[in-house]
Amino acid sequence: MKVTKSDIQKIILEEISMAFESGTQGYIDELDDLLGDMTMLRTSLRKGPNRMTYRKERSRLQAAIEAIRYLKRRSKRQLDRNLLVTD
Q: Are 18 and 27 in contact (CB under 8 A)?
């Protein structure tokens, strides 16, 4: 399976449409789904004869994955704080 730049852009644009507010369980679940998709995309670029040509794309995807993990941790802390305040 050959992954083109337009395929990557299409996947990212589909995933950007967040339906939940930050600090909610739905938002965290949506970030989990996004992380799974991006990780699968990154691992698909590791295979095949052209794997060295996608080095920069894999690096950028890894940076985006790290940023999403940060957003997920921050949202989880915010959710925990809100639950403690309401209790």
A: yes
Cβ contact 47:1 at 8 Å: no
What gap in Å lies between CA 45 and CA 52, rounded to an integer? 9
Residue 35 makes CB contacts below 8 A (sequence gap 6+) with 65, 68, 69, 72
Q: Which domain holds residue 64?
A: 5-86
pTM (global) more than 0.85 = no
The pairs formed by 49-54 with CB atoms below 8 angstroms and a separation of 24 or more are 50/2, 54/3
Contact predicate 32/72, CB 8 Å: yes
State how far the alpha carbon of 9 is from the alpha carbons of 40, 57, 82, in Å.
Answer: 15, 12, 35
Nearest to 24 by CA among 70, 77, 67, 84: 77
- pLDDT tens-digit map of 5-17: 788 777 776 766 6
